Amino acid sequence: MIHIENLHKKFGRNPVLEGVELSIAGSGIHAILGPNGSGKTTLIKSILGMVCPDRGSIHLDGTPIRGEWAYRNRMGYLPQIAEFPSNLAVAELFRMIADLRQQEGQAWPLIERFGLQPFMDKKLGTLSGGTRQKVNLVLTFMFDAPLYILDEPTSGLDPRAMIALKTLIRERKSSGALFLITTHIMPLVEELADNVIYLLEGRVYFEGSLEQLYHHTGENHVEPAIAAIAEQTHV
Amino acid sequence: MFKILKYSFYDLLRSRWSYVYLGFYLLLGFVLLFLNQDLSKAVITLMNVIIVLVPLIATILGVMYFYNSREFTTLLLAQPLRRSRIFLGQYLGVAGSLSLSLVLGLGLPFALYGLFRSGAIWDFSLLLLTGVFLNLIFTALAFLVALANDNRIKGFGYAVLLWLFLAVIYDGLFLLSLILLEEYPLDTFALGASLLNPIDLSRTLILLKLDISALLGYTGAVFKSFFGTSLGLVISLGVLLLWTVLPTGLMLRKARSKDF
Q: How many H helices and E strands in chain A?
């Protein structure tokens, strides 16, 4: 479904992606891991077309995405930092995005799931970080898409919302969606991920299933396994 | 694009800035009419205000809106929308709301004063048209500067500097060069130089139309003898249009390859 070839990106003089090769197909949950600054967000934003790569190509379902825009209606994207126009109310935001996408959004079931009903008339600028993240989640999942890209989906969420999110991800996965998730929370990876992609210094350092990861490192949990990879690379 | 335009427009209406400018232009219109007690004279005074103030306001609001709506922009960029439409929509939203404030704010007092029964209506319309052009031009320039600078302080600085250059410094340099090069035939040079600055061009255009050559600087005198009034009008409007299209195109090009 997603095919990435030799992707390079520099910000100024600072190389972030240095030849990423990646092929992801079918459904399932792929965790993109890696230390801070390893290029996770840049990779995601390149797939979304928000960052323009210097070299290399990204194909989605066989067509290159460069200069395209319509493919984004087959995607739900959860940005790392929830930024919204601050003088808009929550309900207005949902209406506006549905209007702009010209798609019928299913916001209400999600609003109830995350308990956002009391905030619907509040201005986005007055919401707390966790509540903004919930709004962010509703916005991402209100349109049915075959591909979801979540950048640090759990930041600021309370346990109840966390459980709601995990359930939601599993539901969408079982109906055939593909997930790309970046996170630093290893128990979440262990619980959800089918596949792990480990980025390091702008390249894919390891790619494979959890079992392969355990086998590769000789560990039986994600956290020590990732730590082991990080150790290996320091040598 | 029209949907984005609509939301940008609403956003501005909500942010109260449009009302501040509307109030300002209303006040300006009434005060000028009260002080001048004459429509034609008020139009001339108004010209001097419009030529300098409209670009300044468009520059500042353009930069401010661009930086303040960054969140909105990033949100839109992740949606299935064309990049050029996003920026064009926002640009037209800002320039449109500014132009509406201008036209309503000045149009209302003058209409109440009996503009439609006076001969000053064409001059006044031209004035407003030029004002709208200046809004379009300087909002585009402001967006362009803001797109090129992620640092807000720098962006603001450069944008205001650009305004200062076109509104004040350019004239100074122009006059200086005329004095220094006194001995040479400068008609074409003066003409070209005034075409290169939208503020100068607007001033010349209005002055030509108002037919008050006594008030003209060297620029206008040359312009008048060169083109005659009606051809000059067409060319000036054409150049203003070019001044609008060019920065807008550059802005869209810049937006296409920018990382967010």
A: 8, 10
Residues from chain B contacting residue A83 (CB–CB below 8 Å): 70-71, 74-75
User: In the A/B pair of chains, how many CB contacts fall below 8 A?
Assistant: 60
**Residue B157 confidence class, pLDDT cut points 50, 70, 90:** very high
CA distance B74 to chain A (A): 8
Domain borders along chain A are 2-234
Which token pair is B129? Answer: 């048209």
Instruction: Rounding to the nearest 10 degrees, give the CA dihedral for residues B150, A46, A85, B55.
Output: 40
Could you tell me which residues are beta bridge partners of residue A150?
A: A78, A181
What CATH class is the domain A2-234? alpha beta
Predicted confidence at residue A63, as pLDDT, reads 87
Interface of B with A (CB under 8 A): 3-4, 7, 11, 14-15, 69-72, 74-83, 257-260
pLDDT for B199-236, tens place per residue?
988 887 887 777 665 555 555 566 666 555 677 778 88
Give the chain B residue nearest A45 (alpha carbons).
B260
